[in-house]
Design brief:
The complex is a heterodimer of chains A (about 170) and B (about 220).
Chain A: H1 3-9, H2 13-28, E1 31-33, H3 35-38, E2 40-53, E3 57-64, H4 72-79, E4 83-93, E5 96-103, E6 108-113, H5 122-151, H6 155-170
Antiparallel strand pairs in A: 1-2, 2-3, 2-4, 4-5, 5-6
Chain B: E1 11-15, H1 23-33, E2 47-53, H2 64-67, E3 68-69, E4 72-81, H3 86-104, H4 111-126, E5 132-141, E6 146-149, H5 154-168, E7 172-174, H6 177-182, H7 190-197, H8 207-215
Antiparallel strand pairs in B: 1-6, 1-7, 2-4, 3-4, 4-5, 5-6
Helix pairs in contact in B: 3-4
Classes of the chains: A alpha+beta (about 170), B alpha+beta (about 220).
C-alpha cells in the first residue's frame, strides 16, 4: 500500500477523534491531563457542529447556535451512526483560551482565535502570536495522542468502545 | 486570516528531510532563483508562481535577513494570473469573424480559421488586461521543520509543494491523521504504530441502537 492509499484509508480517524473528544467532554468535563510538561487542559464544544457518515449516506447534519452537542438532534445523528465532521471548540490552559474549528478530513484546526496578544510592536507581536500558536499546536497533538493511545490499545474493543456505544445509545455516560 | 493578525487558517506540513546545518545558503539561493516574476502579457503563460515578501506583494527582495524572524522564515507565495473574461473574448472573436467573412466573401469559416482568429484575439486582449495578483503567507519554523501555508485551497497547496521542492529540494508532507500519528513528535510506541497500519473504522453505535434509530 502506498502513502496516498494509507492516508485515504485512515481518514476515518479524524471523525472518530472529534467524536471521542465529545464523549470525553461528557465523561470528565473535557479535562485532560497532558503530563507534567503541559499540565491540565479543558476542551469544550461550542456553537457549531457538523455530523456525517460516508458509510450510511453522504447527507450531513449541521447544527449552529446554543450547544449542539447537548441537542436531541445531534444525539439522534449519533445514534444513526454519524460522527462529528467538524466542531467549534474552546481549549483552555490556565488563563489562556484558544477557540478554533476542528475539522476531520483532513484533520486540522482552522479559524483559530489566539488568546490576547499583549505586545504592541509588530515583531514582538508576531513572536507572541507564534508562541501562542505553537503552544496550541502542541496541546492539540497531545490530545490526538491521548485518543490514539486508547484507539490503538487492546482495550479499545473490549472496554473503551462498548462504553462509548453505551453513551451514544443512552445519551449519558 | 493570516500570520500577522486576526484568526489563523492554514494547512500544516512537516518537511520530510532533515535540514542541513548550513541550510541558509541553500534557502537563500532557492528563494532568489524562484522569486516571483511579472507575468509577460506577450508570453505563453496565463499563470506564474514564485516567492515574494509576506509584508508587501510587490516586494521581491528575498534577502534572508529580511525574511527571517528567528526561527521562522516568513515569505509568501505570489500567484499572478491573467484571464480574459469569457464574454469579452466571445464578442471580440465574433467581431473579428464577421470582418474576415466580409473580406473573404465567405458565409462560414472553417474550424481552423475560427481557431486562428481566437488565438489572435486572445493575444491582443492579453496586452490590454491587467493581471490579478494574490499572495499567501508561508511560515517555516526552521527549528522544527514545520511549514504553515495560509490557505486551504487544494490546488494552491499543491502548487506550494511543487514550488517548495523546486526551490529547496525539500519535500513537504501534509498533515493528515495518519501522518500526524506517525510523526516523531507524537512519539507513539512501536506496537501502536504497528496497530495503526491495520486500523479499521469502528462503529460508535451498536447494531441494536442503529436498527432502532433507523426504524425511527
Amino acid at each position: 500500500m502506498d502513502f496516498t492509499e494509507r492516508v485515504t484509508r485512515t481518514q476515518f480517524i479524524g471523525p472518530e477523534f472529534i467524536t471521542w473528544l465529545w464523549y470525553q467532554e461528557e465523561l470528565n468535563g473535557g479535562t485532560f491531563d497532558l503530563g507534567p510538561e503541559l499540565g491540565e487542559v479543558e476542551l469544550t464544544f461550542e456553537d457549531k457542529l457538523v455530523m456525517g457518515s460516508t458509510a450510511l449516506d453522504e447527507q450531513q447534519d449541521s447544527f449552529k447556535g446554543g450547544r449542539p452537542t447537548a441537542s436531541l438532534e445531534a444525539r439522534a445523528a449519533l445514534k444513526l451512526g454519524k460522527l462529528a465532521q467538524s466542531a467549534a471548540v474552546k481549549l483552555t490552559q490556565g488563563d489562556q483560551e484558544w477557540r478554533f474549528t476542528l475539522k476531520a478530513e483532513p484533520l486540522m484546526m482552522s479559524a483559530i482565535k489566539l488568546p490576547e496578544v499583549l505586545a504592541d510592536e509588530p515583531a514582538a507581536s508576531f513572536q507572541e502570536r507564534m508562541f501562542l500558536l505553537e503552544n496550541l499546536d502542541r496541546l492539540y497533538r497531545h490530545l490526538f495522542k491521548a485518543f490514539l493511545e486508547e484507539r490503538l490499545s487492546k482495550e479499545w474493543t473490549s472496554e473503551l468502545l462498548p462504553a462509548i456505544q453505551t453513551w451514544a445509545a443512552q445519551g449519558r455516560v | 486570516m493570516g500570520a500577522f493578525q486576526g484568526g489563523l487558517t492554514y494547512r500544516q506540513y512537516q518537511i520530510k528531510e532533515k535540514l542541513p546545518t548550513t541550510w541558509q545558503a541553500r534557502v537563500q539561493q532557492g528563494l532568489v532563483q524562484n522569486v516571483a516574476k511579472p507575468l509577460d502579457p506577450e508570453g505563453e503563460f496565463d499563470r506564474v508562481v514564485g516567492w515574494c515578501s509576506a509584508q508587501f506583494i510587490l516586494d521581491t527582495d528575498m534577502s534572508l535577513d529580511l525574511c527571517l524572524q528567528d526561527p521562522y522564515l516568513v515569505v509568501a507565495m505570489r500567484v499572478e494570473t491573467i484571464k480574459i473574461p469569457g464574454g469579452l473574448l466571445k464578442v471580440h472573436c465574433e467581431s473579428e469573424e464577421r470582418k474576415v467573412k466580409r473580406e473573404l466573401k465567405k458565409e462560414v469559416l472553417s474550424r481552423y480559421e475560427r481557431a486562428e482568429i481566437r488565438e489572435q484575439v486572445e493575444a491582443r486582449l492579453r496586452k490590454k488586461i491587467l493581471p490579478s495578483l494574490k499572495s499567501y503567507e508561508v511560515l517555516w519554523n526552521t527549528e522544527t521543520g514545520v511549514v504553515r501555508f495560509f490557505t486551504t485551497n487544494k490546488s494552491l497547496n499543491e502548487e506550494l509543494m511543487d514550488l517548495f521542492e523546486d526551490s529547496f529540494n525539500l519535500t513537504l508532507i501534509p498533515d493528515y491523521a495518519y501522518t500526524i500519528a506517525q510523526s516523531d513528535e507524537l512519539g507513539l510506541e512501536k506496537g501502536e504504530l504497528e496497530a495503526l497500519e491495520s486500523i479499521e473504522p469502528t462503529p460508535f453505535v451498536d447494531e441494536d441502537t442503529l436498527y432502532e434509530s433507523m426504524k425511527g
